[in-house]
Amino acid sequence: MINNDNSKNLQQAVQEARAQQQALLIKGSGSKAFYGNTPAATENSRVLSTREHQGIINYEPKELVITARSGTPLHELQAVLAEQQQMLAFEPPLFSSGSLQAAGNQPASDAQQATLGGTIACGFSGPRRPYTGSARDFVLGSRIINGEAEILHFGGEVMKNVAGYDVSRLMVGALGTLGVLLDISLKVLPLPESEQTQVLECSIQDAISWMNQWAGSPLPLSAACYDGALLYIRLSGAPSAVASGARRIGGDSLDDSQSFWQSIRELQHGFFKNDKPLWRLAVPADTPAIDLQGKQLIDWGGAQRWYIADSEYIADKGNTDNNHESLYKTITDIGGHVTLFKGDTDAGVFHPLSEPLLAIHRRLKQAFDPQGIFNPGRMYREL
After folding, report:
1. CA gap 278, 268 in Å, rounded
2. How far apart are CA 352 and CA 338, in angstroms?
3. pLDDT tens by residue, 15-34
4. CA nearest 10: which of 145, 171, 204?
5. Which of 156, 192, 238, 302 is the most exposed place for a label (fewest CB within 10 A)?
6. Domain total in the chain
7. Are residues 17 and 152 in the same domain?
8. In 10 A of CB 321, how many CB atoms?
9. Are 146 and 231 contained in the same domain?
10. How far apart are the first and last CA of the chain?
11. Residues 65 and 174 in one domain
């Protein structure tokens, strides 16, 4: 594994951009380039690559903590953890192949080098998320460069240091709009001793009901997904607990559980293999079946609904008053929010903010990046 501290060069690049009022488009491997709005590039904007800023700074297996630089390839970090029978419990996707690359969003070779910084900046978590926590829950500390070209350190490497204004976790999902991530400290967890997936054929109503019922019981759940015909329940933990849980749930045991959950995590499942826009609907887990034109796949025990819409929901370029707003209203009315995960981004990909929330975002942007040089417009066009 490469071990290279490129902090000073990155800081100098921010200093120069600040002096020249130059926009910086922060990039790791480019594997997440499909996600979010296209940054508002200008004639003098430039790419700021964190790719060379790599390496594990500190790893304490007994303390369940690892600190690594933002350009560290995610698969290399996971390999180091696996040697100690440990894992990133939020199960982040690599997006190394499958529908996202097949649609021509980025070369597969780049995607195979997905970085830790890109994963944290996007806030991506996999199927284990509702049962162990999100990426944000496992961030203990970080080091960043702000818009004043200052290197700042927040949090630490133990949970008791995460107090007050938890700025490190604020960076999770910020898409690089608040600062350049340099280093991230993460809590890790042991790999489960045993893992098994049960498959049941059922209706969507039964699937949602069972996922919520089992989530409230003492079962070692680690994933729950419904593909429109079959319900998949993954159990992880001690062999005796997994075996007992499988008997209670019933159904058939899935032979290649690992490959199936990889296909869900990496969006390689057959559901995702098309060129239509892909919407991610975040809703309360017990929300009944949502009546929408198109097809859906339910993940996160009911809390995440992947939705491939019919053509009338595709946002027309430059027109924000089209029928996709009816999707926003439908999901807002049930207490959720919408993200256009993959597809045409000209109308904006994230659920419109209320005025109070937009005001908070503006204040945060002003505090961390007063000149607006980092990834302008990548998250919200107003920022």
Report:
1. 13
2. 9
3. 999 999 999 999 998 888 88
4. 145
5. 238
6. 3
7. yes
8. 8
9. no
10. 36
11. yes
pLDDT at residue number 212 = 97
Looking at the DSSP bridge assignments, the partners of residue 291 are none
pLDDT of residue 341: 93
Cα 78 from Cα 2, distance rounded (Å): 15
Residue 104 token pair? 């021509």
Contact present, 339 and 324 (Cβ < 8 Å): no
Instruction: Compute CA distances 235 → 100, 174, 223, 364, whole Å.
Output: 28, 32, 7, 40
Are 137 and 24 members of one domain? yes
Contacts of 19 (CB under 8 A, 6+ apart): none
Residues 176 and 244 in one domain: no
Mean predicted confidence (pLDDT) in 319-332: 73
The answer on 214 and 175 residing in a single domain is no
On the question of pLDDT at 90 being above 70, the answer is yes
Give the domain extent around 17.
7-190
Most confident residue range from 23-37, 71-85, 267-281, 345-359? 71-85
Segment 1-12 shows an average pLDDT of: 94
- Burial bucket for residue 208 (CB in 10 Å: 0-12, 13-18, 19+): buried
Q: What is the pLDDT of residue 95?
A: 87
Burial code of 270-288, b = ≥16 C-beta within 10 A, e = fewer?
ebbeeebbbbbbebebebe
**228: its two tokens:** 């429109």
- Distance of alpha carbon 75 from alpha carbon 83, whole angstroms: 12
Is there a single domain that holds both residue 215 and residue 185? no
351 inside domain: no
Q: Which is it for the CA torsion 212, 218, 224, 228, positive or negative?
A: negative
> What distance in Å separates the CA atoms of residue 274 and residue 278, rounded to the nearest whole number?
9
Query: CB-based contacts of 329: which residues, under 8 Å, 6+ apart?
Result: none
Grade residue 320 by pLDDT with cuts at 50, 70 and 90.
Answer: very low
Size of the chain, expressed as the number of residues it contains: 383
Q: Verify that 185 and 199 share a domain, yes or no.
A: no
CATH number at residue 287: 3.30.70
Are the CB atoms for 46 and 176 separated by under 8 Å?
A: no
Please check whether residue 380 lies inside any domain of the structure: no
| 3 state SS of 326 | helix
